[in-house]
Design goal:
Elements lengths: L4 E8 L3 H19 L3 E5 L4 H7 L5 H9 L2 E6 L15 H10 L4 E7 L12 H4 L3 E7 L11 E4 L5 E4 L6 H17 L3 E6 L5 H17 L4 E6 H10 L6 E4 L1 H13 L8 E8 L5 E7 L16 H13 L4 H16 L17 H16 L1
Parallel strand pairs: 1-2, 1-3, 3-12, 5-10, 8-9, 8-10
Antiparallel strand pairs: 4-5, 4-11, 6-7, 11-12
Helix pairs in contact: 1-10, 1-12, 6-7, 8-9, 10-11, 11-12
Bound molecules: nicotinamide-adenine-dinucleotide (NAD).
The site of nicotinamide-adenine-dinucleotide has 21 residues, from loops.
Length: 370
C-alpha cells in the first residue's frame, strides 16, 4: 500500500470545517486499518485565511499546495466577507489555487444512489443506476479568451465582447483525460461542442477525433451538439459514460447532470492539472456545494460530498481504485440502511447530525474493510 502521501487539507469557511472533520476521521481510519498513511497538513483558505492572515490564500499555503500529492478543500465564502473588494474576497483563494496549480480538467460525477432515486426531479426509471462523468475544460474558452470587455460605440450604444478560443494542445490535453477516464469506466466518450455554428467547435470536434484515431481507437467515441446533449441528459442520461466538453458548455451541463441526482450535499468534484515528469498530476478535490451559511455551525451539514471527494482523490491521485470503491460502497450502504442527514431526509423523517453521518460511514467502513 502506498505510504506517506502528502495531503493538504483546507477546510475553509462555514460548513467546510464541519464536513472536513468527518473526512479527517475517514483519513485516520485508512491509516489505522488499511496501512494507508498520509502526511496530512492543514491550512487556511478563504474567509478564515483573511481573518487570520489578511489574505484569502497565503503564499506559504500556496507553496504547500504545489508540493502536495493532493489538496482537499471544504468550501469558502460567507456573508461576513461579502462586502470586501473583488480582489480580496474569499473566492480569490480558490481561484488562485486553480490558476497556480494549472487545473484544466474538472471532473464532476453524477451518480444516483438507489436509495435516493426519489430525490431526483426525474422519474425513477430514468435515473436509477445513473453513473456518468462530466469532464469540463476549466482554464480556456470564452471565460478567458481575448478580446473581451464592454465598449461604447460612436453612436453612444455599447457592445459587450467575449471570445471563444481553443488551441490544439488545449483540446488534446483535456480530451486525453477524457479518453483515459473512459478506459477506466465503460470505455465510452462523448465529445460535446457546437460545431454546427462555431469554428472553435469544428476545431474541437476534428482534434478530438484525430487524437482518438491516433491513440485511443479502443475507446468508443461519439460527438454531440451541446443543445442536444442538454436534452439527452434529461431524456436518457444513462446513454452516457464520460462527456468531455469546453468551459462554457461544461459549466451548464455539469450543473444540469448534478441535479439529476438530488442534493448538493452529495456531489463531489476533482480538478486535475498536467502530469509532471514522474506522472504525478496536481489535483484539488472539493465538494460542489458552498459554505451553506444558513446551516453553518449547527452540525446539520451532510458530509457525504466531502467524503466522496476524498474517494475521488484515492482513485485519481493515488490510483487506489479499490480503496475508493470501499468508501463509495460504505456511503451507498449507509444510504440503503435509511440513514439521512436533513438535506436528503423526507419531510418528517428523523435526520442524523454531521457527526452521526460521519460515524455511520466509519462503522460501515469497519464492517466492509477492516
Ligand atoms: P451553498 O451550496 O452553500 O448552499 C445552497 C443550499 O444548499 C443551502 O440551503 C445549503 O444549506 C444547502 N447545502 C449546501 N451544502 C450542503 C450540505 N453539505 N449539507 C446540507 N445542505 C447543504 O450555496 P450558496 O448558498 O449559494 O452559497 C453560500 C456561500 O458559499 C457563498 O458565500 C458562496 O460564495 C459560497 N460558495 C462557495 C463555493 C466553493 O467554495 N466552492 C461554491 C459555491 C458557493
Amino acid at each position: 500500500m502506498a505510504a506517506n502521501k502528502k495531503l493538504l487539507v483546507l477546510p475553509g469557511d462555514g460548513i467546510g470545517p464541519e464536513v472536513m472533520g468527518e473526512v479527517s476521521r475517514v483519513v485516520e481510519w485508512f491509516g489505522d486499518r488499511r496501512a494507508l498513511k498520509f502526511e496530512t497538513e492543514e491550512g487556511l483558505v478563504g474567509g478564515a485565511a483573511i481573518d487570520a492572515q489578511g489574505t484569502p490564500l497565503a503564499d506559504a499555503t500556496m507553496a504547500k499546495a504545489m508540493d502536495a500529492d493532493a489538496v482537499l478543500l471544504g468550501a469558502v465564502g460567507g456573508p461576513k466577507w461579502d462586502n470586501l473588494p473583488f480582489e480580496q474576497k474569499p473566492e480569490r483563494g480558490l481561484l488562485r489555487l486553480r490558476k497556480d496549480m494549472a487545473l484544466f480538467a474538472n471532473l464532476r460525477p453524477a451518480i444516483c444512489f438507489d436509495a435516493l432515486v426519489e430525490a431526483s426531479s426525474l422519474k425513477a426509471e430514468i435515473v436509477a443506476g445513473l453513473d456518468i462523468m462530466i469532464l469540463r475544460e476549466l482554464t480556456g474558452g470564452v471565460y478567458f479568451g481575448t478580446p473581451r470587455g464592454i465598449e461604447t460605440l460612436a453612436d453612444g450604444t455599447r457592445r459587450g465582447i467575449n471570445t471563444q478560443v481553443y488551441t490544439t494542445p488545449e483540446i488534446h490535453r483535456v480530451a486525453r483525460v477524457g479518453f483515459e477516464l473512459a478506459r477506466k469506466r465503460s470505455n465510452k466518450l462523448c465529445s460535446v461542442e457546437k460545431a454546427n455554428v462555431m469554428e472553435s467547435g469544428v476545431l474541437w470536434r476534428e482534434e478530438v477525433q484525430k487524437l482518438h484515431d491516433a491513440e485511443y481507437g479502443d475507446v468508443e467515441l461519439t460527438h454531440m451538439y451541446a443543445d442536444n446533449c442538454a436534452m439527452q441528459l434529461v431524456r436518457a442520461p444513462k446513454q452516457f459514460d464520460v462527456i468531455v466538453t469546453d468551459n462554457l458548455f461544461g459549466d451548464m451541463l455539469s450543473d444540469q447532470a448534478a441535479m439529476l441526482t438530488g442534493s448538493l450535499g452529495m456531489l463531489p468534484s476533482a480538478s486535475l492539472g498536467d502530469p509532471d515528469e514522474t506522472g504525478r498530476r496536481k489535483a484539488l478535490y472539493e465538494p460542489v456545494h458552498g459554505t451553506a451559511p444558513d446551516i453553518a455551525g449547527q452540525g446539520q451539514a451532510n458530509p457525504i460530498a466531502c467524503v466522496l471527494s476524498f474517494a475521488m482523490m484515492l482513485r485519481y491521485s493515488l490510483d487506489l481504485g479499490g480503496e475508493a470503491d470501499l468508501v463509495e460502497t460504505a456511503v451507498r450502504n449507509v444510504l440503503a440502511s435509511g440513514k439521512r442527514t436533513a438535506d436528503i431526509a423526507a419531510p418528517g423523517e428523523a435526520a442524523l447530525s454531521t457527526a452521526e453521518m460521519g460515524a455511520a460511514v466509519l462503522a460501515e467502513l469497519e464492517t466492509l474493510g477492516a
